[in-house]
Amino acid sequence: MRTPFPRTEVEGISLPRMLIGSNWMMGYSHTSQAADDSICRLNRNPEAVADIVAAFAESGVDALMGGISREETLRLGLELAEQRLGKKIIRIDTPVLNVDDTPEARREALAAIRLYHEMAGNIVDEQDIPDISHRMERRPDGGGPVRAGGKPQRGGERGHASDKGGATGFVHISLGRSAGIRPGDLVGAIANETDLVGREIGPIKITEKFAIVGVPDRSVDKVIAALKQTTIKGKKPTVRRYTD
Description:
With 244 residues, the protein is α+β, with helices and mostly antiparallel strands. It is 32% helix and 14% strand.
C-alpha cells in the first residue's frame, strides 16, 4: 500500500508538501535558449502537460503553481489531466504584478489580482479594475502612451511594454468583450506564441468589439504574424498594426 504523500493545511486548504512547477512544461529552463526550445518541443502542449500533472497527482502531489491564467496550454493541460483523473487539481496562480512603490503601481497590482480572481471564477469585493482607456492617447512625437494631463508614461499599463527600452507599438485585435475576451487572454496568447514575456505586454484596452494591445514596437510585426496563426477563446482574430 502506497504511503500518502505528506500534506499541510494553509488557510483551510489541504496542500501537498510539494507543488508541481510549470517551468519545465512552459519552456523556462533558466539555463539557455536551446534548453528552453527543447522543453517547448517536448512538453509545451496540453497532452504532455496532462501526462506530467497526472503522474504527480497519482503520487499525491495534486497542486500546481504557475502562470495558469496567462498560459492557455497550461490551462488546457490541467483540464485534460482532471478529466483523466476524475478529480480537481489545486491551482495556485502567479499573476504578473507591478511592484513599483507608487500609488499608481499599487492600483495596477490590485487590478491584476482582481483580474486573476475573476478568471478563476472567484468573487472579489474590491473596486472595479481601473479604466485605462484615457492612457491610450499617443504622444505628440508618436511614442508610447501618455498619462492623463499629457505626461509620458514611463512604462506600459499591465506589463510595461516599454520597460525593455524603445517605443511602444500597438496591435489591433478584432475580438473584444462580446467575445468574452479579457486582458489575461491577450497576454497569454501573445506570450504563448512569441518570445515576449508578461512585463513586455501592455497597455491593454478592450472594447465591445475589439482590443488594442501594446508591445515593444520592434515586435509588432512578429506579434501580428503569430496571432494570425492561432485562436483566442476559440476564435480566429483579424490582427493589424494600430495606428489610429
